[in-house]
Amino acid sequence: MAKNLFQKVWDAHAVRELSNGQTQLLIGTHLIHEVTSPQAFGMLRDLGIKVKYPGRTFATVDHIVPTDQREQPFSDPLADAMIKELAKNAEEFGVTYFDLGSGKQGVVHVVGPEQGITQPGTTIACGDSHTATHGAFGAIAFGIGTTQVRDVLATQTMALGKLKVRRINVDGGLKPGVYAKDVALHIIAMLGANGGIGFAYEYGGSLFDSFSMEERMTVCNMAIEGGARCGYVNPDDKTFEYLKGRPYSPEGDNWDEAVLRWKSFASDPDCKYDDIINISADEIAPTVTWGVSPDQGFSIEGVIPDPSVEKDENDRLSIQEAISYMKLEPGKPIKGTKIDVAFLGSCTNGRLSDFREVAKYLKGHKVSDGVKAIAVPGSQVVDLMAKKEGLDKIFSEAGFEWRAAGCSMCLAMNPDKLVGDQLCASSSNRNFKGRQGSPTGRTVLMSPVMVAAAAVNGYISDAREVFSL
Amino acid sequence: MTLAKYFHFNNFSNMALEKIKEVKGKAVYVQGNDIDTDRIIPARFMKCVTFDGLGEFLFYDVRKDAEGNDKEHPLNEPRFSGASILISNANFGCGSSREHAPQALYRYGFRAILAESYAEIFFGNCCGLGVPCAVASHENIKKISSLVDTNPDTEVHLDVANSEIIAGELTFSVDIPPGVREALTQGRWDPISELQEAGQAVDSLVNELGYTI
Prior knowledge:
The structure holds two protein chains of two kinds.
Chain A: H1 5-13, E1 14-17, E2 23-26, E3 29-32, H2 38-47, E4 57-60, H3 77-93, E5 96-98, H4 108-114, E6 123-126, E7 140-143, H5 146-155, E8 157-160, E9 164-171, H6 180-191, E10 199-204, H7 206-210, H8 213-221, E11 230-233, H9 237-243, H10 252-264, E12 275-280, E13 287-289, E14 297-299, H11 313-326, E15 341-344, H12 346-349, H13 352-362, E16 372-375, H14 380-388, H15 391-398, E17 401-402, E18 423-426, E19 442-445, H16 448-457, H17 463-466
Helix pairs in contact in A: 2-5, 6-8, 13-15, 13-16
Chain B: E1 22-25, E2 27-29, H1 37-40, H2 60-63, E3 85-87, H3 100-108, E4 112-115, H4 120-129, E5 133-135, H5 138-150, E6 156-159, E7 164-167, E8 170-173, H6 178-185, H7 192-197, H8 199-209
Parallel strand pairs in B: 2-3, 3-4, 4-5
Antiparallel strand pairs in B: 1-6, 6-7, 7-8
């Protein structure tokens, strides 16, 4: 019977059915970081359980690591203690740890692909909801909680109910100034923040065929913002080309065998889906959010919605609450809204290709007076490559602070935070209330090039106009 | 036993788990769709290596102002104090996978949640902690939230075994997936011991799959 990739990977990794009807699913690769793993290791220690497959477990520090201070002890003693705790756990349990001295540290979802750890046809779990990113390689990748991190450490498996699969076809080409991030935001605005509950998203169509691996990662990364627990793209020659020669990729005869196996996981041409959505790429505009949920987004030409015309009470309240928090007025265009901070980085848009694309246009421009602009590479490898190409200088000369690798102001667990009700043009993935570190801080999500345009003008702008795209 | 640091209740293989057949208590309505886990527990409170003490920071930034004074929020209203059932709307617990969110709810005193729908990672995290997440229709959420608002002392009874809410004169059925319901009512909601049983099958499958890492 013809199967889609999700069904193939699921069937290949199903150990058995559990008494509650869920599946005991083998997790091929387990990624861990400093924030959601300490309690899991604590439970293992107290129970006297070892990590079942330390060789299949990889750790790095990203969430709380400072991007302006790299030598311990860090100024935040709690952050310092958490990083020491991860180092201790990795050593005691024999887990590979990409620490700050390794040259490989970074946001866990940037590091996995970059090191060739993320491979097609496997299952990946990590105590972080943006684990969906790894689906770009044709893996089924789940964000999990800490008790499940314990389960995976202890057994290399977890209990999970099977998902339905929704195919999202995007056909055609993107207009100038429209990026993978806009595709992600467009899909979320269209299907809703809860539209994907119960589904895995399979992204396909000619746009995804033409996308680079980095672009595929950007869209899969935000599957979770659309409520889908995972998102993926079928593996193809681009996937294999990206992986070839990476530190953990197979070599020699093993490589050829692996490619054959990986190809076999791709969805069969006549397979069935539980739902199919078709989108035309040319409908997608540079997209920005206006509210406090990632589905509260629209074209850069959009005007702030009026809650009073909403019939449903909860929808009306959601809009009212969002615009009141965001301090935006109904009927006014989003374009022209003053910004205080510009943030470039995160597991959504912190890869080399993102900085390259922005650098192309930023050269010769200056960040507007009064705007704090930071560029945070997704990993030490991205940082190094960007510096080799001189990208860091382009950013610095324009007025961006070029920082060291980490999650930084995406969730602001490190010292990179908004202050008061500052408004941030951000290439990250969440515009929740308080997300960027200040309980009244405001976030407007957009593509990296749009962040650069906002930084240059000092207000939310159409990058196509600012950079003549 | 240091495990108490991590959980205030049984959550490991060598001890019997509580059979959660029902949850009874006062309820409180926290209105809104898409209430995310950043709102439930802001990220800065996750700088910890245990889940201890997270209860006091539950919904912190919507409950407290910059000086730490109470803002208008149902959890700050004395009439709802001691509530053990949280009522909300659609897509509750969306966003970050942080288990700190259900841990904070549990440690604050909530033993069950009633909402229109849940984000899946949050739902799974709650199941593993023995906190039932029941799904009710939009209309029934309206009815029960209005009842609780009018009479906050109403005892709300979530009958897990029969997937039913009974609150004063109001009775309606709720949805709890059958597997989850059985796991809760039979005291099998923490899967670790069952997962561990299949150790050899896991080893065989790893060999069979021919991973290159």
